[in-house]
Amino acid sequence: MPTDFEQLRTIRSQALAAIAEITASPKPSYTIDGQSVSWNSHLRRLRQTVDWCDRKLAGEEPFEISSQAGT
User: Fold this and answer.
1) Burial class (CB in 10 A: 0-12, 13-18, 19+), 61
2) Which residues contact 42 (CB under 8 A, 6 or more apart)?
3) pLDDT at 66 over 80
């Protein structure tokens, strides 16, 4: 089973792939049978997902604290 870190990286990667696809072939927003599809809103949510993943991943990455003793 993948770790949380791996799942976050997968979600981020999938969102970035969807952003690349949407921006490569932009589509107009539309309404069919009372259901609206707004590509701008969808793109905004995908970007928010990437930002959320970035924040979560930054908290998961190992870090090192460097300190120096006084002489």
Assistant:
1) exposed
2) 22
3) no
Backbone angles phi, psi at 60, to 5 degrees: -90, -20
C-alpha span between 26 and 42 (Å, rounded): 12
Rounded Cα–Cα distance for residues 63 and 36 (Å): 45
Tell me the pLDDT tens digit for each residue of 9-53: 999 999 999 999 999 998 888 999 999 989 999 999 999 999 999
For the chain, give the number of residues. Answer: 71
No. of helices (H) and no. of strands (E), the chain:
2, 2
Tell me the whole-structure pTM to 2 decimals: 0.74
